[in-house]
Amino acid sequence: MWVFWALLAAISAALVIVLTKAGLKNIDSSLAFAIQSVMILVITWGVVFFQGNFHEWRAIEKNAWVFLIAAGVFTTLSTLFSYKALSQGPASVVVTLERSSLVIAIILSVIFLKEKLTWQVIVGGSVMIAGAVLISLSNSRD
């Protein structure tokens, strides 16, 4: 079932990039993100209340709070940086470079989460980086 959710996340992320790029005309990138953040809050808290698990916040351990808050800070920074890049560059290149974060995440998960590094992961990550470089170079001449 996780594959289904991951594919929905990929489709949603792609839509975010295209819709954001279209919406950034004549608007500051930080303001655009602030507007979208309101929807993020409304929808995510709506889901929490709909699922009936709001009361579970009291059971969250201290370490989990630290990790989740730090992740929230980096999510915000990542999105602000991404929107700034989208406001200045072509979506196809911006998203390609931004998604090189997948390779960085692989490296960090091996170092900090002790996840196994296989030859398939190494080859896949290398192909992702090569693709990002290729797309960036092809658009830098335009």
Tally of discrete structural domains: 2
| Sheet having the most strands | none
Q: Regions with pLDDT < 50 over 5+ consecutive residues? A: none
What is the element string, with H for helices and E for strands? HHHHHH
What is the general shape?
globular
Q: If helices are DSSP runs of H or I spanning 4 or more residues, what is the number of helices? A: 6
Protein name: EamA family transporter
Pfam families: EamA
Domain EamA: 1-136
Transmembrane segments: 6-24, 31-52, 64-81, 93-113, 119-137
Which descriptors would you attach to this protein?
EmrE-like, membrane, 0% strand, mainly alpha, transmembrane helix, 2 domains, single chain, 142 residues, 80% helix
Description:
This protein has 142 residues and is mainly α. The chain has 2 domains: 89 residues, no CATH class; 44 residues. The protein is built from 6 helices and no strands. The N and C termini lie far apart (42 Å).
Outline the secondary-structure elements.
Elements: H1 2-23, H2 29-51, H3 62-88, H4 91-98, H5 101-112, H6 119-140
Helix pairs in contact: 2-3, 4-6
Keywords: Membrane, Transmembrane, Transmembrane helix
Protein name: EamA family transporter
Domain EamA: 1-136
